[in-house]
Design goal:
By secondary structure, the protein is an alpha/beta fold. It has 16 helices and 14 strands. The structure holds 6-O-phosphono-beta-D-glucopyranose. Keywords: Glycosidase, Hydrolase.
Amino acid sequence: MKRILWGGATAASQYEGGFYDGKGMDTQDCRRWIPRLSNDTIQTRLLTEADIRNAKNSRSDDCRFPFRMGSRGYEYWESDLHYITSLGLDVYRLSISWARLFPTGFEDQPNPEGVMYYDRIIRTLAHAGIKVFITINHYAMPIAIVDKYGGWRHRDVIDLYLKMAKFVVDRWQENVDYWLPVNEINSGYFSPYNGLGIIGTIDYSYDYRSIFNGLHYQMIASALITKYGRDIGARGKFVCMVSCFDYYALHPTPEDNMKLVHDEQINQWWCADVLATGEYGYYTEKFLADHGVVLDITDKDRGILRSNTCDIVSFSYYSSSICSVDEKREQVPGNLVPTLRNASLEATEWGWQIDPMGLRITAHKVYDRYRKPIMVAENGLGARDNVDSDGRIHDNYRISYLERHMEQAELAVREGVDIEAYFVWGIIDIVSAGSCEMEKRYGVVYVDADNEGRGTYKRLPKDSFYWYRDFIASHR
Ligand code: BG6
């Protein structure tokens, strides 16, 4: 039986900080933590031009902008890699900060300090025998591109992305095992600012035309960097990624089940269908027409998508969702999209419903649909941790969450699903992408900092660290 590679993952904007050494301002650097705003608020969806103006006028070390600090990984990378190696991870997933390499996105040459930063990390991982998974772009783009083009609204952004991505693939091709062109590509639909750098209007109106064309340009960019990597003989495999929500129908009625089919198509499969099969799903035409979207797609685009599909399909999974035509039901938060409450499930403090078997159901569905190896690119528990009187963090809740989800991943493999790797999200505590909080922690390594950037930023392994280390060792 194939062995799952056990991994851990972080993203540059949530982890690095280091808003200096030549790094440019990016979209995440403009986001403020606002107390008591939950995930499904406008904070995660759209920022306005006024928000961006205020961010630009603030001091670079203003603690109200938590992504400027991250977990201070830009300084702590060496000791963090020590934790990564001590854990015995098979594979580590990290992302490249676009604005650290190309501060505005328009430079011809990359920032040498930025290149050196990733040189060291990638070299250290390769030297330690840990496979390297690079997310070329995870949520953050240089703010100068937003100023000029309105984020991914414009086709020219494909070339700016490709300049950065080609540099990344050229430079690190010998040491990288997996390339992911864009994190959770379907997230641009739910969170246009994070996913596509699209700024909102003052009434936060939802601009389907920009969003679906932006997603299309991102998919063309993904296919073109895949082509480039293959043309130059880069050794890494190319991965696509979507966020999955594992929908259940609330009632066993045809209506709720029909809604389930539509929700899965638009929320979950849309982009994976394009990147894994090279074709837009049959359902897209009607959806686009219903929302008045004319897609800027050419015959050449269709050829690019068809000839450069991904090798591996990956997904993030945190909780399952319920759908129903009954709109009066109570809604609860989830990753990226709110859902209906499932009375049979417990939930995290942030209201995300915990459903380990949902991971196995999703793994089957993804594998069955695409028949390519799959990866669980993100899974984990966002929780508050406290340092106990004995100076340790007893996060049994996290161990229990991870253990139950990993068990389901292994069961899926036994049932024939080809799972290449599983990644614990935010393996070292990082700032939450949804709610901008440091105190919503996923890591097995604690970072001593709070939501307002106070703390020493020192690292402390949690009980889950020792548990994961032993789990990996016993699964070799
Ligand atoms: C995924 C993102 O959607 O969910 C991550 O790829 C994010 O960047 C993760 O951190 C968990 O969400 P949150 O909002 O708890 O950080």
